[in-house]
Amino acid sequence: MALTLDNLDSRSEGRPDQDALPHHSPNQPPPPEEPARRRRSRWWWLSRGLAALLMLLFLTIGWLAITAPLSKSLQPISPPQITLLAADGTPIARNGAIVDAPVEVKKLPIHVIQAFIAIEDRRFYSHWGIDPRGIVRAMWSNVSGGSTQGGSTITQQLAKFTFLTAERSLTRKAREVLIAFWLEAWLSKDEILERYLSNAYFGDNAYGLRAAAMHYFHRKPESLTPAQSAMLAGLMKAPSRLAPTNNYDLAERRMKLVLQSMVDAGYMTPAQARAIRSPRLDVRSKNDLPTGTYFADWALPQARGLDEASYAAQTYKTTLDSRLQAAARRAIENAPLGQAQVALVAMRPNGEVVAMVGGRDYAKSPFNRVTQARRQPGSTFKLFVYLAALKEGWKPEDTIENTPFEIGYYRPQNAGGAYSRTITLADAFARSSNVAAVRLFQKVGDKAVIDMARKLGVTAPLPQGDPSLALGTSSMTLMELTAAYAGIAGNRFPVAPSAFKAKEEGWFDGLLSGRSSLSDGVHENMEALLRGAVNRGTGRGARIQAANYGKTGTSQENRDALFVGYAKDLVVGVWVGNDDNTPLKGISGGTIPARIWRDFMQQALGERSAPRPRAIESPDPQGPVQPLDVPDLGDIPLGNSDLRVEKGGAVFSTQVGGAPVDVRLDQNGLQIDGRKVIEQIMPSSPSESPPPGP
């Protein structure tokens, strides 16, 4: 058949060709294709729905494993208490929570467990992490105007204070429920209860049942009486408000409510509950030490890193020297500072910090100007410029131009307009010539100067291409600047400042330490420059009998005044300035900072006795507690024991088999109080012992 235009048009309009149609007899219906598609569609959605649920389950388990690792519930939720001692053993600060070793449910008396379960989660051993009946009861009580109740189980409480924040939201509550199911799936009921009791907060900064029992009753938890157990269980509702040391009447009323709950649960009879008398507190530990000082705030993070995730209270001896700290405080008290702030740090050439004053009054401003304030070092930075030059072969007797000049828009100037055609490096360093320092900086190159500063441990930003860097325009902390000078003092750098005694470094350790030193010639020449700055230069106000080395520094517009130097085995940095960065009036590095440095060094090196304080009132720079500052030393920790000085006698407290024992020495002789040992190995009296729970 010929292909006509009409045929072509019909094909182009989409009419199907008859040959392409399926062949069916007129009486045979077409196959049921649509129902088959629907059956496949349902199975497709069902299989993918199951896959999505499985994927969600795996993602949830993975999320819980990452965000709620079971091991975290074994760790203390608050950092344990740390006591810092000075090098002579004098306590200087105490910080952190009162925590102790975890408890074991099988070793606790039955009435201890019953008290907590009766008041906190009566169906603890029968639910799966959440208690629907408890939730409904709490909702009804809250809606009907009764006492406000939370409805959280012990498992939920463990999930909340171990893994979550105190945020109040539906999202946080949903995470709490998920984690509760997670804990119930992987831990036994006794393990959950143990972790709950070992980490819960009991007020008075005490975390965990063992710490609380020792704090309030001076008794280990395995020997708690029913009355003591009920009072401790009652604290869970509001630990800070109900702490018996703060409000015994409230704690006592709450204890009676716990006893009534134990009666309602069938753990004891009403007669037994009525026979129980309120317990007597036996609080032995008192904290007369500050929770922080400038030095303690800096040392504490280092101490935390020494023993992570420990329940036990720790005591660490620091490098702080009580005598030198007192000398630093007196040197500052006797300085005419006006309204200016001050900072002083003293360290050994190996970085062991022996004295630190971060400001005039810690109580008013705990901001540490030794470690936290970043200020311009002024001419003390010239150390790196001259050291780079000496390393490249320059000598102290070499000369350099000392006339005014400009570098683009920058024009360095000498203080007082003192210029000359040339000047030796020794004189330029001693007189702190700015134009000579900038010229020397240009000759050796900024890269060499910055590299030298980095080798000496300076980590502050040091911009390249800026000639004013030679005059100390880049800010840094007094600590890192003083540590750089310590590297010169010991000819071993970089020096890492530390609050704890440095480990002895063997010959092989020295090879692998990555530390450097100067050649003998370069080191001698640098010390000659530093010595000249004190003997005949801007640092004359710091002269002492011993050979001393140092450099003054005064930043732009007299905003910062510094003196950094060393003598014998002490390296000391002093800074004076205003916190608002306003200019100082009549103060430069060679005046008050140099005199404070001198006064401190004279006391430290025994060149003169400690001066009497000025007659006028001076702010207390708040150093650590000194033995002569406090008539009662308080408690001195000795491992797991402590020594207290009280009521004209000394009391040594220790433990025998976990039971506390006190040994007292006074005018009546030696007395040993071992009642606690007897009490804790003898069973409780019949009137206080409830029958075993069901």
TrEMBL record:
Stretches for region Disordered: 1-38, 606-627
One Pfam family of this chain: Transpeptidase
Pathway per the UniProt entry: Cell wall biogenesis; peptidoglycan biosynthesis
Keyword Transmembrane: yes
GO cellular component: outer membrane-bounded periplasmic space
Keywords: Carboxypeptidase, Cell shape, Cell wall biogenesis/degradation, Glycosyltransferase, Hydrolase, Membrane, Multifunctional enzyme, Peptidoglycan synthesis, Protease, Transferase, Transmembrane, Transmembrane helix
Catalytic activity reported: [GlcNAc-(1->4)-Mur2Ac(oyl-L-Ala-gamma-D-Glu-L-Lys-D-Ala-D-Ala)](n)-di-trans,octa-cis-undecaprenyl diphosphate + beta-D-GlcNAc-(1->4)-Mur2Ac(oyl-L-Ala-gamma-D-Glu-L-Lys-D-Ala-D-Ala)-di-trans,octa-cis-undecaprenyl diphosphate = [GlcNAc-(1->4)-Mur2Ac(oyl-L-Ala-gamma-D-Glu-L-Lys-D-Ala-D-Ala)](n+1)-di-trans,octa-cis-undecaprenyl diphosphate + di-trans,octa-cis-undecaprenyl diphosphate + H(+); Preferential cleavage: (Ac)2-L-Lys-D-Ala-|-D-Ala. Also transpeptidation of peptidyl-alanyl moieties that are N-acyl substituents of D-alanine
Molecular function (Gene Ontology), one example: penicillin binding
Penicillin-binding protein transpeptidase domain span: 344-602
TM stretches of this protein: 45-66
Segments forming domain Glycosyl transferase family: 100-262
Keyword Electron transport carried by entry: no
UniProt-listed GO biological process terms: cell wall organization; peptidoglycan biosynthetic process; proteolysis; regulation of cell shape
Biased composition (Basic and acidic residues): 8-22
Family listed: In the N-terminal section; belongs to the glycosyltransferase 51 family. In the C-terminal section; belongs to the transpeptidase family.
PANTHER family: BINDING PROTEIN TRANSPEPTIDASE, PUTATIVE-RELATED, PEPTIDOGLYCAN GLYCOSYLTRANSFERASE
Protein name listed in UniProt: Uncharacterized protein
Source organism: Novosphingobium lindaniclasticum LE124
